[in-house]
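Why should sequence recovery work at all? Because a backbone constrains its sequence more than one might expect. Tight turns favour small or flexible residues, buried strands favour hydrophobic ones, and helices have their own preferences. The token representation captures these environments compactly. In the example below, the structure is given first.
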């Protein structure tokens, strides 16, 4: 049986980031504007590195390619999941989330479907979901 895999955090600096990943989770941060911890990632801009066991030192994308048996022999060519912990010290920018087909043509990546679990929020914090008014046109 394979033991659970622990991965080195991949920190992403953001203008809206803060330092709560240190104060709440105890991470040593490279700056006080860390907005994201990519906790599970095979993304080219921040690959998780396995920290323990027989796969120690390998990146998650290497593990996905070389040991499909660990993932139930999935059919996806690339690892299809990115798990993040966010610290939004300030308002985030507007997010646009393409589907897989659109993402391949414009960014060479998968689309972006999201699921959020909010584990802590300041009093008065809010999420705005969807446009506040009908969009008549947009430019690409």
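From this structural description, the recovered sequence reads:
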């Amino acid at each position: 049986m394979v033991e659970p895999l622990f991965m080195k955090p991949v920190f992403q600096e953001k203008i809206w980031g803060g330092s709560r990943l240190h104060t709440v989770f105890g991470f040593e941060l490279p700056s006080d504007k860390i907005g994201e911890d990519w906790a599970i990632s095979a993304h080219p801009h921040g690959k998780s590195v396995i920290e323990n066991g027989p796969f120690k030192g390998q990146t998650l994308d290497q593990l996905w390619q070389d040991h499909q048996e660990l993932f139930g022999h999935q059919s996806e060519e690339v690892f299809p999941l990115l798990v993040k912990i966010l610290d939004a010290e300030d308002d985030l920018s507007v997010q646009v989330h393409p589907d897989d087909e659109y993402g391949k043509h414009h960014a060479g990546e998968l689309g972006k479907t999201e699921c959020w679990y909010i584990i802590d929020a300041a009093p008065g914090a809010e999420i705005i979901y969807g446009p506040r008014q009908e969009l008549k046109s947009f430019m690409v």
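A few observations help interpret the result. The mean pLDDT is 85.
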